[in-house]
Design goal:
- The protein has 264 residues and is of the alpha/beta class.
- It has helices at 22-27, 29-45, 92-105, 119-128, 147-162, 190-204, 208-212, 216-222, 227-237; strands spanning 3-9, 49-54, 64-67, 71-76, 81-89, 109-112, 136-141, 168-173, 243-250, 257-263.
- The protein has an eight-stranded mixed β-sheet.
- Strand 4 (71-76) and strand 5 (81-89) form a beta hairpin.
- Helix 3 crosses helix 5, helix 5 packs across helix 9 and helix 6 (190-204) packs across helix 8 (216-222).
- The longest helix is centred in the first third of the chain and has 17 residues, at 29-45.
């Protein structure tokens, strides 16, 4: 069964209604509307398993990391929300197959038994699970190996997904530049806006080579956290007939939030 859903999602907890104040929610209204549109696409695709690539999971410099706890749960206590909790089952069979293929191809992968989901997974799933929640979750953390290795890992995921009898989705969780304004979390750089605009433009053109070959200094200066998630996703889309659908982009609070769907 081929890949049925692919997307790029931001993960600011402030877009969760129980966290963001009414004034904050108004400021990020484009992102919320984009996520709601994406949730409709997700419900139509009805994947039975979803691989979520997060920069806030157990990231290791030299290994990709997959979490294999049978039950996965997460909350937003750290962000002042003591009400919301999300609980999912893991797809242990899919993880086993990914692990076996990584051994064959000598791809550096480690398995972590961690029940708690990070906000890079939770925020996208909060919206995606609203209209359809009958799916298992495979949490994946990227590494700091080179970009080519990330792209190839995405290709490996595609080969595994294509061998499945059930439908699978992939979510690349990540925010773009954290340096868009003087009050941005990582400080200001004019190159932050340059990075975001360039990346969105290249996605619209389906210029994967251009994305892979972005100037490393530009990427570094942007202070992003989603680039490697996107590279893995593009590897998984390699060879497929996909069309980019930019549902929203905005840069409130000095951080770039991109919501994108990939029509398959």
């Amino acid at each position: 069964m081929p890949l049925v859903f692919a997307s790029i999602c931001p993960h600011p907890p402030i877009i969760i209604p129980t966290i963001g104040r009414p004034t904050d929610l108004k400021i990020v209204s484009k992102t919320i509307a984009g996520m709601e549109k994406l949730a409709k696409r997700f419900a139509e695709a009805r994947p039975l398993s979803v691989i979520v690539i997060s920069p806030h999971g157990p990231v290791d410099f030299n290994y990709f990391t997959i979490t294999n706890s049978p039950t996965l749960a997460g909350h937003f206590y750290n962000f002042g929300d003591f009400q919301t909790e999300l609980i999912f089952k893991n797809d242990e069979k899919l993880i086993e197959e990914i692990g076996n293929e990584c051994k064959k191809q000598k791809t550096p992968l480690r398995i972590a038994n961690i029940k708690e989901l990070d906000h890079g997974v939770l925020v996208p799933l909060y919206y995606l699970a609203k209209g359809y929640s009958s799916f298992k979750v495979v949490p994946l953390a990227y590494s700091y190996l080179n970009l080519e290795t990330h792209f190839k890992f995405g290709q490996l995921l595609k080969s595994i997904v294509n061998s499945q009898r059930s439908k699978v989705g992939i979510v690349a969780s990540g925010d773009l530049s954290h340096r868009l304004t003087p009050d941005a979390p990582a400080g200001y750089s004019p190159r932050g806006k340059e990075f975001d605009e360039r990346l969105v433009e290249l996605l619209k053109k389906k210029d994967v080579k251009g994305i892979l070959n972005l100037d490393p200094d530009l990427v570094e200066e942007a202070g992003e956290c989603g680039y490697r998630s996107i590279i893995i996703l593009l590897g998984a889309l390699n060879g497929l007939d996909w069309q980019p659908e930019i549902l929203s982009y905005e840069g409130p609070f000095g951080v770039g939030y991109l919501v994108a769907n990939f029509k398959l």
